[in-house]
Amino acid sequence: MKHEMIAMVLAGGQGTRLGVLTKNIAKPAVPFGGKYRIIDFALSNCANSGVKNVGVVTQYQPLELNEHIGKGGPWGLNSRNGGATILQPYSSSDGEKWFKGTANAIYQNISYIDSLNPDNVLILSGDHIYKMDYSEMYNFHVENNASLTVGVIPVDMSEASRFGIMNTDHSNRIIEFEEKPAEPKSNLASMGIYIFDWPTLRRYLVKDSAKDRVLEDFGHDVIPTYLDNAENCFAYSFEGYWKDVGTIESLWEANMEYLNPNHPLNETRNTWRVYTSNQVTGAQFLTEDAEISNALVVDGSYIAGKVTDSIISQDVTVSGGSTVSNSVIMSDAVIGENCEIEYAIIGEGAVIADGAKVVGTREEIAVVGFYDKVGGPKNDGEK
């Protein structure tokens, strides 16, 4: 069966800037918003956009991510004519193993893509927070007879030097690409979202490999090659909410923004749902001493303390006398009695012993890793 477009989600990133939160799991598997994981947004966008065949390319610490995705059932990707497929590095006859970059990851999975025989391949990052209709970008790609369409988002000119910048003409054709330029000529930042004409991309990847060279990365290698060869390259401008949660501060900020009921990502809206795979748990329990203000509290949580401006994930305990403010508490974490948590991210399964404090600032968020312990007989004091 020939497909108009399939998706390849690049989900193997280590996410070193997230520190202890990615010590044992890949960045796309990091929890977000109380009940989601970061990759849920890319997968839900695919499902809502009608992209039913999705390859998920994993590499770093993939076990939890693999278990979360399964066969794609929660996203409706386990249909007869679709599916989610986990694609991990393997040793091949030509000696390839670990993916050397984004483009190399696609090259090493040519056989999977060929098996679906697509006209176009949608390349996505598995570690961005946003809602986007890929079918609109696809229509733009087809209308322009493009070999490559790059999703871009306008950013403030003062921030443009942090991104790969696409310079375009009046028709949105890309005429120049600048990687983190000191003096950017435009503010159209690459979102790391690409639609490639598959036969064209396949030809470049195979030809380059045959010459004992490797097009390793889309931004550094493939886009400049396309421009040098006068391929039809266009920029598709997206003006919705999009966030790269690559740092502790940006992850915390995105979670805090999510508390706004009018936020574009708010899951209570039915027009574009975000789906996920969640374990079955009990109802939340709020004691008579619980105080909650401007907080998101997920099922299975036990709250006996005070929670303000925070996200309390599934099966979290906040014991009596404790205060949690401006913080993200991930699933299964336990906050003991008389604790103080402020401007912090508490990882899954972490334990904050009675009387302990985890206090950061708006500029420097305090972090406790997954299943770590703060306070108690063996670790007294503040973090």
From TrEMBL:
Q: Does the keyword Acetylation apply?
A: no
Question: What sort of enzyme, by top EC class, is this?
Answer: transferase
Q: Is the Nucleotide-binding keyword given for this protein? A: yes
Q: Which reaction does this enzyme catalyse, per its entry?
A: alpha-D-glucose 1-phosphate + ATP + H(+) = ADP-alpha-D-glucose + diphosphate
Which Pfam family is an annotated match for this chain, by its short name?
NTP_transferase
Q: Extract the InterPro entries matched here.
A: ADP-Glc_PPase, ADP_Glu_pyroP_CS, GlgC_bac, GlmU/GlgC-like_hexapep, NTP_transferase_dom, Nucleotide-diphossugar_trans, Trimer_LpxA-like_sf
Name of protein:
Glucose-1-phosphate adenylyltransferase
